[in-house]
Known about the structure:
The complex is a heterodimer of chains A (234) and B (112). Chain A is mainly alpha-helical. Helices cover 79% and strands 0% of the residues of chain A. Chain A has two domains: 4-74, no CATH class; 90-231. Chain A has helices at residues 13-29, 34-56, 62-73, 76-119, 127-153, 165-196, 202-231. The relative contact order of chain A is 0.13. Chain B is α+β, with helices and mostly antiparallel strands. Chain B has a single domain (10-104), classed as Winged helix-like DNA-binding domain superfamily/Winged helix DNA-binding domain (Arc Repressor Mutant, subunit A, Orthogonal Bundle), CATH 1.10.10.10. Chain B has four helices and three strands; from the N terminus they run H-E-H-H-E-E-H. Chain B has a three-stranded antiparallel beta sheet with strand order 1-3-2. In chain B, strand 2 (60-67) and strand 3 (70-77) form a beta hairpin. The longest helix of chain B is centred in the C-terminal third of the chain and has 26 residues, at 79-104. Chain B is elongated. Chains A and B meet through helix 2 and helix 4 of A and helix 2, helix 3 and strand 3 of B.
Amino acid sequence: MADPRLTGPSLDPAARQVIGTYLAELADHLGGPAAARAAILAELEDGLWSATAAHQAGELSPEEAARAAVAEFGGPPTVAAGFGPELAAVTGRRVGLGLLATGPLVGSSWLLVAAATWTWAGREPPAALGLVAGLVGLVLVVAVPAAMVAVAVSGRLSRWLPAGPRVAATAAATAASACVVGDLVLLTGMLATTVLAGGMAWPAGVVAAGVSGVRLSLAGRAARRCLAARATLP
Amino acid sequence: MRAEVLKGHLDGLLLAALEAGPLHGYAVMEALRTGSGGRVDLPTGTVYPALHRLERAGLVRSRWSTEGGRRRRSYELTPAGSRALAGERSSWREFSGAVSALLEGRPWPTPA
């Protein structure tokens, strides 16, 4: 059954204006993923109307009750700052999960290029390939644990782990930055090595370069988002 | 009572507010206010993010519904949340008993 308090003041245009203005200002102060921001705004809008209904029960007009509700909730910068750690944790978690999910795709697409260029063609890989593989290995040593830390400290394990949203955002930014370096190494190193070897398997190479290019762009943006989220924390 | 005074006990208070059944964020704030005679009046920027944090930790779960044409998010305890609440209660009894004993000059624990 619907809460009867939800039906009255929300129909008043002046009250709607007060709450709409408040939510618009709050939206300007919230960072983080768009879906998380939208969920917060929807949740707080419901809370504001509940507060408005409660204040209206004290004989205030709908507009006065809405103003009282807004005052009760506090200034948008203060409320947004309260959500900062949660939004940083959500950002870090999403970036960490995204990198862990896309990593095998990027890796396997380049392994396919190497196999098609050398193994299946029965040719000896050049020494430079070892250098590229070594650099990619170094990137993985940084990126994979960092992404796992970001996911671990921002999920259920946060109950037991002392690290908080700052660590999640930092770890995710580290993992994303490492992936940018890894993709640059793969794009330049693998393409140069295979083209110089004169036997680039073009279809596989184009697919791998495309996958790495997209991941590089997304990882770069993700790293900036994580650092921005971390910068909002007290 | 300011939020800083309650630091360290916020999770227990929120879990206790949800013990009787699911509540939305503002109802949690009202439950704390009403249940404490107005003494525990926590700000929005504390309560809502804390509920999100408890959900991330698996101590509460949320569910969206539509009420009066608006989306509403309600929270309820998970089994892990119920266990955490029991732990918070036990810690609080021990802490408050020891502090009361110290303030009132009584021995603690009470001799059998």
